[in-house]
Queue: 3 jobs
Job 1
Amino acid sequence: MKTVAIIPAGGSGKRMQEYLSKQYLLLDGIPVLVHTLRIFQKSPEIHEVFLIVPENDIAFALQHIVEKNGISKVSRILKGGRERQDSVRSGINALEDEHHIVIIHDGVRPFITEEILHAVISEAFKERAVTVGVPVKDTVKTVDDNGWVAETLDRNRLWLIQTPQAFTRDIIQKAYEDAYKDHYYGTDDASLVERIGINVKVIHGSYDNIKITTKNDLVLAEVLIKRLKKGMQ
């Protein structure tokens, strides 16, 4: 039985108003995507990585991301789709019987730790469907169309959901099959699993596990990586 990671990295640079797609922007002189892939490369629990990129980027990703940086666990580079869910589906469709645990992680979340990755995989073997997240710190309110507060939600029960998310192959394949049959697009992979009646376990992630989608995120990422490097000295 193998554990495979599906890494969707099909974003553009539109939110950052950059020519280069966000996954290729440099963080401490190295592409964001490389930082992410190195965690999976280093983990002894990950056997393969399916990297999903825009079709026109496949050759670039192979040469400048995978080969140049020695990411040998990337066994397939697959073309992405219009939405993130379409991109992940490319990876789901490439799964084989030998794959037991399937990890799905955003290519632009470079601060995932080996400890969190280990915890997600371990829980997936027991619970079959797992995601990481962090408790909400701020008060959260629902607001009506006119800007009036409709309800103040119980903060103690609210979590911000991140990736990685991990599932047994049969569950995630069934979830994606049903979603596409019903023309349903969810906000994350766990939501597709939830809608087929499978409970999803939430475990603690990290507030540092940010998703880099804006220039402000990239600025914060530079601060985080400097702090990490300082801690290693």
Job 2
Amino acid sequence: MSKVKKEYSKRTASEYNFWRSLFMFLVCKIFYMIRFKLVYRLEVEGLENVPEDNKYIVCANHLSTLDPPLICAVLPRRVAFMAKKELFDIRFLRWWIDWLGAFAVNRESLGPSTIKTVMEIKKSKWVFGIFPQGTRGLPGEIRGVTKGFAGLAKITKCDVLPVGIIGTNEVKRLPFSGKIIVKIGKPIPYSDDVESVVEKWTDEIQKLTGFKYIPDDSSQDKIGVKND
């Protein structure tokens, strides 16, 4: 376990290079995009809201395992997501998500290595992506929102780009049998007031998706950000 964490919990800007960018392009922009358009009739709204620089964190609601490649396929920049460290114990999956730029985290606590990696991503041409819910939720609801994303935005001085996802929870295989809608909101400026950023994100995601935010006091502090 310690070996996996040591190898995959830290990234440097140089690792987000041409070869990883090419791999993501082939996997997400071509392979997955064909699937999204052919099977799910993908619709994207709000691309004009995406900043031209990479000083923002992509923060989307989470419905299924399709969400990370969907975000990577839709947005103009490559997106590096954090992934729970247990996924890096599975050999093929470890190779796959490693090449897609993901890095390992302990979901209970975002430590110094996470902050350093996000800062390294900011130095590259990629952007950092995170699902504030921490785990997949149910359609129609926004539950389990944690504060970690707002804390990272504050520390790294990155705005928060809200992205609403609808329809990825429905598994479809026949052509044009599904429907996925991605709505991108306007960036939320980073702030020292973490609570305010969390509140603005949940409000914006509700508007983008039509889902209802359901507070869960026990989850708000599940993921913290450690500076030491």
Job 3
Amino acid sequence: MQIRTIGILGGTGFVGRTLANRLIQDGYRLRVLTRNREAHRENLILLPGLDLVQTNIHNPELLAHHLSGCDAVINLVGILNERGRNGAGFRAAHVELVRNLITACREKAIRRVMQMSALGADAAGPSHYLRTKGEAEDLLHGATDLLVTSYRPSVIFGAGDSFFNRFAGLLRFAPVFPLACANARFAPVFVEDVAEAMARTLRDPDYFGKRLQLCGPSVYTLEQLVRYTAGCTGLRRIIVPLPDLLSRIQAALLDFWPFGAFIGKPFSTDNYLSTKVDSICTGNDFDALGIRPTALEAVVPSYLSHTGTRARYYRYRSHTGQ
């Protein structure tokens, strides 16, 4: 199929910046819609063939207007927490936006849609996050006039990520770190591998209608990942895994985190419920794409290691490939 111009929602975020760079290499013209153009000028404005457009993507008329002339749309919009606690924020960001996107695609005769979802997304899932991600997937795949691919990665890592960097920041201020949901399992996946998978499947009809699982090469518990983060940053910390009841209590208390509107909640009841579903693949679709997923040990130390002998050790290992 002929694709020259791609509209991207959520393109100024961590994954979006990497994906934009990757797609520009293939010669596509990109139109990235954002609510604050000036805040992202330095990251994206210099990419050749990229238009950074300020608009409100949650306004159906504006969304359709700015997608006019696009041949495909990529939706990367997602939130891990909401300001409230009733699911309304998740529904607006994930489900209602997708409803508007389907309408806009039909109005502007755009058939190709790529949706960033998550492992465990399920309309009957245990958390607002997983349920609304699942509902959004089902809406798109139920639109039989569209050519949809959904991407279900485990937690994504890379410079600027919100996982390892978040824990590194928390560990710096907590000599004793009470860790909720320590046994939750993840298969962290490198952001550049995810972008590569999306680039390779953009025009491939074999992937239309598919929901792709994307995982890194190894599975870790949350406790293992937090201890690894402490090691990469050279921090000696006492990490105390909490039993399930205390994990739930910690989540309930942090639901009322007073700075959530400014820096987000460090943890919430919805996060706690999401960890009830392990973020691991039952079948890794990188294999069929011919992509060998990158180990986190080859990348994470390069952006977390700053000081200390242990940090220098991790840097050395990353450069020697050990």
